[in-house]
Design goal:
This protein has three domains: 13-187 and 333-352, Up-down Bundle (ABC transporter transmembrane region fold); 188-305, ABC transporter transmembrane region fold, CATH 1.20.1560; 371-611, P-loop containing nucleotide triphosphate hydrolases (Rossmann fold, 3-Layer(aba) Sandwich). It has 22 helices and ten strands. It has helices at 12-22, 31-37, 43-75, 84-133, 136-141, 144-157, 159-186, 188-195, 198-233, 236-244, 248-271, 274-301, 308-349, 414-420, 444-449, 465-469, 478-487, 491-496, 514-528, 544-558, 593-599, 602-611; strands at 371-378, 391-398, 403-407, 429-434, 437-438, 451-455, 532-536, 562-566, 578-583, 586-591. Strand 9 and strand 10 (586-591) form a beta hairpin. Helix 9 packs parallel to helix 13 (308-349). The protein is elongated and about 125 Å long.
Length: 612
């Protein structure tokens, strides 16, 4: 996987090392079988497609045989001049066959396009579903652009294979076999001449396919980089950052470098195998001339009684062998090329979420449970053995309806606690209990349904205020939206907008102020009506006036709920029932505001610094 923690950009040397690591496609066992399993739900349509392919192939064999009859019976019969009656019947039959073959071809194309695109769509949804099930840590380790590339570029890269493979493989295989059978019926000696170099072409085709597969892998890696650059540089935050530091040209140059790499790889991919197909075309196109020469030699030598009609029919059939054979070779190359893309897709499909419901997990039954940490230790999975844990044997208890706050210096482990409670992260050791039940014994859906989170970085969709609010409760009525926004102290602001609840907030809510976004986020949580409310530094990024307004809304939201507040500004939690002071992954103090001030420890020092 590409991308470091937090999606940071890496230097040129690191990028080259990463490219080298990704040059080879991941090794997926039974890859071909798994690709074929994608088509299993569409057996009926595939069976009908196979039947149509067989019918179409059979119809293509008949016209060359009728050509022989047209020459030997209609135009040049042994007993005299042209037999126009027989010739008209033969020509009429040929036209009927062409019409039926065309209709069969249209139906066949519809079926293959339907099956192929449905399989591709199912694959895209399956991959998206898998990504939705992954734990939070996966997304902090991987660039968003890289994930988007797997979902869009890789699945899109195999689209033509999924759409055309059935028709191409079956149709061309049957056509090749039918043409060979017809050639053998007409004259076996000429058939041997026509096929003598075929094994060499197959060997050459395999070598070309291996080269194209390697180029395809590098091309998708480059597309992944371009998608990541686009996502970073053209987001609202990325544009603001570039403009703030006057780095627009640097971003253009970075994109241009990757674009030039992509152009080179696309040219390589387009040209790989072209000389091979040119040689195949020359070889197969030259066979009729060679057939004429060999037929003349056989007739002269008296070793065959071949007729002029047979020679014309044979070259007609042989010419029909050209395109199916080239089509089969192209499909084989496409399959080899797409193998790398399928491997990248299945690599993501095979990901195992590190946080998932265990067998026999039960729903959380307690309406307002107590929350208890019992000797909890947390260490990031990719942290080295010498790295100190983020949390080290932390224990505390929060009673139902209690307002508990966690304070401490940056990096003390406060936000980690807010991730562990809803099980966004998994404790490395110890237990986290809701009531008397370990969170690992609970279903994630029932656990998260009882918890509401308001974070420092509010995320709003590029949609209306109503749509953003209904993300918590899709069936919410307008009256419920109004009640939630009144409770969050944002209704009067919304009422002043010309479109009220239909106002579009812009990407990530950039059309609203920080305080307005935060209060809409609070209203969204209120619609969910959770038993446990987690406030992760929900006011630390706001100015003093906005903070007071939002804090009033938060106080209303916390009423009657168990509230866990991760606080940077200590003025927001002076009324908390219990305050836990974290430092270096340990709880060093706990008590009420008054008790901690009187103790004269870490909390008193932090409070004095902020107040001064």
């Amino acid at each position: 996987m590409r991308g470091g923690p937090g999606g940071r950009r890496v230097g040129g040397a690191d990028e080259e090392a990463q490219r080298a690591a990704n040059a080879e496609a991941p090794r997926i066992p039974n890859l071909f079988r798994r690709i074929m399993e994608l088509f299993a739900p569409h057996r009926t349509r595939i069976t009908l497609t196979v039947a149509l392919v067989l019918v179409g192939a059979a119809l293509t064999v008949i016209p060359p045989l009728l050509v022989e009859q047209a020459f030997d019976v209609g135009l040049f019969p042994p007993d005299g001049g042209p037999n126009l009656t027989a010739l008209a019947e033969i020509v009429g039959l040929m036209i009927v066959i062409y019409i039926v073959a065309a209709l069969v071809g249209v139906w066949q194309t519809y079926l293959t396009a339907t099956v192929g695109n449905t399989v591709m769509g199912d694959l895209r949804v399956t991959l998206f579903t898998k990504l939705q099930s992954m734990e939070l840590g996966f997304f902090t380790r991987t660039k968003t652009g890289v994930i988007q590339s797997r979902l869009q570029n890789d699945v899109g890269g195999v689209a033509s294979v999924l759409t055309n493979t059935i028709q191409s493989v079956l149709g061309n295989t049957v056509n090749v076999i039918a043409a060979l059978v017809a050639m053998l019926i007409i004259n076996w000696q000429l058939t041997i001449v026509a096929l003598v170099l075929m094994p060499f072409l197959v060997i050459a085709q395999r070598r070309v396919g291996q080269v194209r597969a390697r180029i395809a892998t590098k091309t998708q890696e480059s597309l992944s980089d371009m998608t990541a650059i686009t996502q970073e540089a053209l987001s609202v935050s990325g544009v603001l950052l570039a403009k703030s530091f006057n780095r627009q040209q640097a971003e253009v140059d970075r994109y241009d470098r990757e674009n030039r790499t992509q152009i080179g790889l696309q040219v390589q991919q387009a040209m790989s195998g072209q000389w091979f197909f040119a040689l195949v075309s020359i070889f197969l196109s030259s066979i009729p001339a060679i057939v004429y020469l060999v037929a003349g030699w056989l007739v002269t030598g008296g070793s065959t009684d071949i007729t002029a009609g047979a020679i014309v029919a044979f070259t007609t059939v042989q010419s029909r062998l050209l395109f199916p054979l080239i089509g089969l070779m192209r499909v084989a190359l496409d399959l080899q090329t797409s193998g790398a893309l399928f491997a990248r897709i299945f690599e993501y499909l095979d990901l195992k979420p590190s946080i998932a419901d265990k067998p026999g997990a039960v729903d959380l039954q307690v309406g307002h449970p107590a929350i208890r940490f019992d000797d909890v230790t947390f260490r990031y999975p990719d942290a080295g053995p010498e790295t100190a844990p983020t949390l080290d044997r932390v224990s505390f208890s929060i009673e139902p309806g209690q307002f508990a706050a966690f304070v401490g210096p940056s990096g003390a482990g406060k936000t980690t606690i807010s991730y562990l409670i809803p099980r966004f992260q998994e404790a490395s050791d110890g237990r986290i209990l809701f009531g008397d039940t370990d969170v690992r014994d609970l279903t994630q859906q029932s656990l998260v349904s009882r918890i509401g989170v308001v974070s420092q970085e509010t995320y709003l969709f590029h949609a209306s205020i109503a749509d953003n609010l209904r993300y918590a409760k899709p069936e919410a009525t307008l009256e419920e939206l109004e009640a939630a926004t009144r409770a969050a102290n944002i209704y009067e602001t919304i009422a002043r907008f010309p479109d009220r609840f239909d106002t579009i907030v812009g990407e990530r809510g950039y059309r609203l102020s920080g305080g307005e976004k935060q209060r809409i986020a609070i209203a969204r949580v209120l619609l969910k009506d959770p038993a446990v409310l987690i406030l992760d530094e929900a006011t630390s990024a706001l100015d003093s006036i906005s903070e007071r307004v939002v804090q009033t809304a938060l106080d209303a939201a916390a009423h009657g709920r168990t509230t866990v507040s991760i606080a940077h500004r200590l003025s927001t939690i002076v009324n908390a029932d219990v305050i836990f002071v974290l430092d270096g992954g340990h709880i060093v103090e706990q008590g009420t505001h008054a008790e901690l001030i009187a103790a004269g420890g870490t909390y008193e020092s932090l409070y004095r610094q902020q107040m001064s």
